User: Which sequence fits this backbone?
């Protein structure tokens, strides 16, 4: 590519939200210069975006933070190959799924993390009944996703933004690299048991896992 990639991606190791962008960039064959940051030094991300979370991209002078906003930006800038369907109703379905994922799917593991951290901070046992209820909701989400994948290879048929958004969180059903020791990721690995009754989800994890990443 003449002059090298014009997109700079700020990311952190093991970041689920960064992997979303890595999948989207690779699908669109967009080259990106990757800037790996440590959470202990967010200076470069703060300086460029005014906040400390990754991913952030800088694309021809435009700075975009938040993984979903970045994927939408990439779709506007490079529509083909698509990550969002064109027909309005199909696109609305995908938007609804992403909204569900960002709120409903993420809520129980986030709440479990908060409860475990509270126990640690206050030197008390976490509320086991609460953890059990939240764990049951996580398992029910797996069952829902299993049904969504019935008869199709990807969440909405063709590979789409839905797969980019969901996979980095669902891949923990297949285990965790021991070097990836973030509490949130341990929760995802320990509380999303894939069973015999999840063949579609298992196959999808393998399928998306084999797709290219931008870094
Ligand atoms: N809604 C944001 C969330 C970004 C986010 O939470 N990023 C994580 C990495 S996956 C992060 O920067 N964590 C550092 C921290 O929470 O301090 C997105 O989708 O990009």
Assistant:
């Amino acid at each position: 590519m003449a002059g090298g990639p014009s997109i700079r991606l700020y990311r952190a190791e093991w970041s689920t939200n960064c992997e979303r962008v890595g999948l989207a960039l690779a699908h669109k064959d967009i080259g990106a210069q990757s800037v790996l940051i440590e959470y202990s030094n967010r200076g470069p991300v703060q300086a460029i975006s005014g906040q400390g979370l990754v991913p952030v991209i800088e694309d021809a002078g435009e700075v975009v933070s938040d993984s979903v906003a970045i994927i939408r930006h990439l779709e506007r800038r490079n529509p083909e190959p698509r990550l969002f369907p064109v027909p309005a109703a199909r696109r609305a379905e995908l938007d609804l799924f992403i909204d569900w994922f960002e709120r409903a799917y993420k809520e129980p593991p986030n709440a479990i993390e908060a409860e475990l951290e509270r126990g640690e901070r206050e030197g008390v046992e976490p509320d086991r009944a609460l953890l059990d209820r939240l764990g049951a909701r996580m398992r029910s989400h797996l069952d829902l996703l299993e049904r969504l994948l019935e008869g199709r290879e990807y969440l909405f048929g063709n590979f789409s933004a839905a797969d980019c958004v969901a996979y980095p969180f669902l891949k923990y059903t297949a285990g965790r690299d021991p070097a990836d020791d973030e509490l949130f990721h341990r929760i995802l690995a320990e509380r999303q048991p894939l069973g015999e009754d999840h063949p579609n989800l298992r196959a999808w994890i393998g399928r998306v896992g084999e797709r290219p990443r931008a870094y």
User: Anything to note?
Assistant: Residues 47 and 174 are 36 Å apart (CA to CA).
